[in-house]
Structure formats: structure tokens, C-alpha cells
Design brief:
Layout lengths: L29 E2 L20 E9 L26 E6 L2 E2 L20 E2 L3 H8 L3 E3 L9 H15 L2 E3 L6 E5 L2 E9 L5 E2 L3 H14 L2 E7 L16 E2 L2 E2 L3 H11 L3 E5 L7 E4 L2 E4 L4 E3 L12 E9 L5 E11 L5 E3 L3 H13 L11 E2 L2
Parallel strand pairs: 1-8, 2-3, 2-17, 3-6, 4-5, 6-7, 9-10, 9-11, 11-14, 14-16
Antiparallel strand pairs: 2-18, 8-9, 12-13, 15-16, 18-19, 19-20, 19-21
Helix pairs in contact: 1-2, 3-4
Length: 363
């Protein structure tokens, strides 16, 4: 694992001065606690009552110990009304641990490597905000080593949040009498591999055999304000192979994924409908108390709402525009939905989503 696996190019700010849960192997057991979520109105603009509603966001953090929100219990309050659905997903960009030994950055030059952690009890604030499943398939989930990762998993599970993204892991949620399977991928040996397409295909097919609906999440692509576009090529960032996001997403759908949710670039990217399945290439940053830069498109984001039919086909969606303000707090506003529509048209043409004035879109 490289020392320079933090987020750079201005996407991350230089920060100012329970029982452990083991890893789950292949065919991981179904996670409990999710059906107690306040599902509310998914606001997706459609669905005929037999679909499954998803709310999804990108990189989610709440500070870097000891630099933490003064009122963490209310940090998500401005946007809490949007974090509702049968399943509410976020990419947990960092760890929830009290372990202070940073195994990633070591003797790296200050300002070139960042290790993210917040207290384990912050999992309760994530759950209260609405999250039911979070991905650990990213370049910050192992910032404090295996012990930090295990404490993060234990904190999430204690709060009633399922995790996904560990090697060989397929995470199952029971939703309205159906099984939703999650598998997460990134470019690191502590996650499912984004770049080994054969192994990824096999795991997605395994999930397909077990679940009614399959969601694939990935952390792919270069970073920064100039990384808005899906290139269709392998993206190398700071010497790391960050995958070919388009090739991976298309492979995932062909292997059985019903929904693909991307993160990694720290900016929004376009969305397309491929074989009647929705691919969101990057949901950008979502929250981070002095974790991320907020300039321009770095602070522009969305909550994605999507309804899938019983067989996984995309039915309808809505983009709620969100702006990260002071201290990286997400609040309603900004032009995230318009930016995604523009990028979708530029990168995917007729396959890109077309968003109306209310943020709604269909096939």
C-alpha cells in the first residue's frame, strides 16, 4: 500500500492543528436493523408501489479528530429530509476509531497525505441522519490499519448500519420482502479489486445469485476539479491505477448489477442509462468538517433518489441539489442537478439522463 493514498490536488484540506467485528467473507450473512429506518417519501418522482427506493450520496465524512463539528448531532439536520428511502447509502470516506496510530502516512511530507478518523460514536449520528449502508471501498477506510477498520465496522453495526466493500464481501439487506445485495470495489488490497475485472465479475455474479436487486459501488477515477468527465480510459492518479470507470460500470451491469454508484473524483460526474440500469459515475463530496476543499465544483453535490422495479430495472429518479457550505456541511441548494445533466449530455449523449426543472428524470 502506497503512502500517498490520501486525496490531493486541492480536494482535501490540510487539517489544522466496543467489541471488534471480524471481516465478512464471501456470501456474507444478511444484515439486520435496516428495516427500522424512517423511509419517508423517496421523492423520486415515480414508482408504482412495488419498487424499491434508494437515496445515495458520495464521500461522507465528519471531520478529522480532534477537528470535529461543535454540534455533531445536528450536523446533517439541514439535509436530513432528503436522506430517506428504503435504502440510504453513502461512501464513508474515513474511519470511526479512537486508534491514533496512523499506518498510512507515516513519515510523509505534511500536506501530502491525510488520514481521516472521527470517534466511533459518530456512527450514531450517521444512523440518525438516515444512513442504512455505507461503503468502505475507498482510499481512506484503512487509514488506521486493520484495527481501525475493525473498530469502524463494529461502530457501524452497533448503530444499525451495514457496511460493504471488504474483500470477497457481498452484503445483503432485507427490504420490503426482497433482498438487496451490495458489493463495493476500489483499487486497494483491503477492498474488492476495481482493476481485476474477472474477479469483480465473479463476485457480482455471486451477488446476482443471492439477491433480488444488486447494487455495485465503486471508488474510481482521478481526483479534483478537472476530473468531471468520464474518459472511457484507465485513469492514473498519483501513480495509482484508479480504473476505467466506464468499462467497470458496463461490466458490472452486464454481470448482473441493477444500480452502479460511483465515488472517488471528489466532484460530480454524469449519469447514464445502460441496459435499463442507472449508472452514477461519481456522486462527488457530500460532507466533511474541514476534510475537503469546497471551492467551485468541489462543494457542489446532490442526493440521488432512484426507484428500481422488482427486477432491478430503473424506473425513475430525482436529483436534489446540495451545496457544501462552511466547514463542509451539506445544505439544500446549488446547481448540482444542472451540472449532472450537462455532464451526462456531454459524455453519454442520448444515453445520458435528462433532468427536468424539478430534478426529476426517467429512462
Amino acid at each position: 500500500m502506497l503512502a500517498l493514498t490520501g486525496c490531493f490536488d486541492g480536494t482535501v484540506k490540510n487539517p489544522p492543528g466496543e467489541a471488534k467485528a471480524g471481516k465478512q467473507g464471501k456470501g456474507a450473512g444478511k444484515q439486520g436493523g435496516q428495516d427500522k429506518a424512517d423511509k419517508g417519501d423517496s421523492g423520486d418522482g415515480g414508482g408504482d408501489g412495488d419498487g424499491i427506493s434508494f437515496a445515495a450520496v458520495g464521500d461522507t465524512a465528519m471531520g478529522i479528530t480532534p477537528t470535529l463539528p461543535p454540534s455533531p448531532s445536528t450536523y446533517f439536520d439541514p439535509i436530513k429530509g432528503e436522506l430517506k428511502g428504503d435504502v440510504v447509502f453513502g461512501n464513508l470516506e474515513g474511519t470511526l476509531t479512537d486508534i491514533s496510530e496512523d499506518v498510512k502516512c507515516g513519515g510523509a511530507e505534511p500536506g501530502t497525505c491525510f488520514a481521516f478518523r472521527a470517534p466511533p460514536e459518530y456512527a450514531d449520528y450517521l444512523r440518525a441522519a438516515g444512513f442504512t449502508v455505507m461503503s468502505l471501498a475507498n482510499n481512506h477506510s484503512f487509514d488506521f490499519g486493520e484495527a481501525g477498520q475493525e473498530e469502524t465496522i463494529a461502530a457501524l453495526r452497533k448503530a444499525g448500519i451495514a457496511e460493504t466493500g471488504l474483500p470477497g464481501q457481498v452484503t445483503m439487506l432485507e427490504v420490503g420482502g426482497r433482498t438487496v445485495g451490495f458489493a463495493g470495489f476500489a483499487s486497494y488490497d483491503y477492498t474488492n479489486s476495481l482493476t481485476d475485472l474477472d474477479a469483480a465479475r465473479a463476485l457480482i455474479r455471486e451477488a446476482r445469485e443471492q439477491a433480488d436487486i444488486v447494487v455495485v459501488v465503486n471508488h474510481a477515477g482521478a481526483e479534483g476539479s478537472d476530473a468531471l468527465h468520464v474518459t472511457g480510459e484507465t485513469e492514473i492518479y498519483l501513480g495509482e491505477d484508479r480504473g476505467n470507470a466506464e468499462a467497470f460500470a458496463h461490466m458490472a451491469v452486464e454481470a448482473g448489477a441493477d444500480l452502479v454508484l460511483g465515488s472517488g473524483p471528489h466532484v460530480l460526474r454524469g449519469m447514464e442509462i445502460y441496459r435499463d440500469r442507472l449508472i452514477a459515475y461519481s456522486l462527488g463530496n457530500f460532507s466533511g468538517y474541514q476534510n475537503f476543499g469546497l471551492e467551485g465544483v468541489l462543494g457542489t453535490t446532490v442526493v440521488l433518489h432512484a426507484t428500481l422495479g422488482p427486477d432491478g430495472d430503473f424506473r425513475s429518479g430525482r436529483l436534489a441539489s446540495v451545496q457544501m457550505i462552511e466547514e463542509g456541511q451539506p445544505v439544500p441548494g446549488g446547481d448540482g442537478a444542472a451540472l449532472i445533466e450537462e455532464l451526462s449530455a456531454e459524455d453519454f449523449g442520448s444515453k445520458g439522463i435528462q433532468v427536468d426543472s424539478g430534478g426529476r428524470f426517467t429512462k
